[in-house]
Write a structure and sequence with these properties.
Blueprint lengths: L7 H14 L8 E2 L1 H8 L3 H13 L3 E4 L3 E4 L4 H25 L2 H19 L3 H19 L2 H24 L4 H15 L3 H23 L1
Antiparallel strand pairs: 1-3, 2-3
Helix pairs in contact: 1-3, 2-3, 4-6, 4-7, 4-9, 5-6, 5-8, 6-7, 7-9, 8-9
Length: 214
């Protein structure tokens, strides 16, 4: 749906969510309702509703007398999230090898072409979004809605860190090649090969994320 037709609270939510995910609003930064409402030209009500939704998604923390602030991620929490992502995406890749449709396989190829194009343009935001779409197609092909919901929540938490990693990455050829190898293994139904590729793929990004934090 076009943003001009969205309820005001959704427009505010999408704006603040993007500012958090793409690092404009930093972990620990306070979200002042009056300042945000003035900046966005809206009343405080949609800002308050948007902040409440952001808290539900784990992107904002609420504190008595201090109000709302952008959530941070401890090293332990980050490690847990990365480990959970690896475990769950190992399942989705394995399941996709036997469940993916021809249409989904074609969408997967198109998503990797979009990823490759964004990477060549050195556009970190589009590269991160294209990488997200690629993995979401595999998750969809696995056909387990409960795991899909859990992964979507995890990836929301991790997106900020993946974006920062991709923003500073020197080149993406290894990621493109890993995507291609993954497509080939899934198409051939070689689940053991696909699982090893996705583990390597996630491990590479994990090391990059920790490199950014050190």
């Amino acid at each position: 749906m076009d943003e001009q037709f969205l309820p005001l609270r959704d427009v505010v939510f999408n704006t603040l969510r993007d500012e958090i995910l793409y690092g404009k609003l930093k972990p620990g930064e306070r979200l002042m309702e009056i300042a945000i409402s003035e900046r966005l030209g809206v009343s405080r009500t949609p800002v308050r509703e948007a902040i409440r939704r952001l808290e539900q998604e784990g992107l904002v923390d609420m504190f008595p007398r201090r109000g709302a602030q952008v959530s941070g991620v401890t090293e332990k929490r980050l490690a847990d999230a990365l480990e959970a992502r690896k475990t769950l995406e190992t399942f989705t890749v394995n399941a996709a090898c036997s469940r993916i449709t021809k249409k989904q396989l074609e969408k997967l190829r198109e998503a990797n072409l979009a990823f490759e194009k964004a990477a060549k343009q050195d556009d970190a935001a589009k590269t991160a979004e294209a990488d997200e779409r690629f993995h979401n197609i595999i998750i969809e092909a696995a056909g387990n809605e409960m795991i899909a919901d859990t992964l979507n929540n995890l990836k929301e938490q991790l997106f900020r860190y993946r974006y920062e990693y991709l923003k500073d990455a020197k080149e993406f050829s290894h990621l493109v090649e890993e995507h291609r190898m993954l497509i080939g293994a899934i198409e051939a139904g070689k689940s053991d090969v696909a699982v090893e590729i996705i583990k390597l793929h996630i491990d590479q990004q994990t090391m990059g994320i920790y490199g950014k934090l050190s």
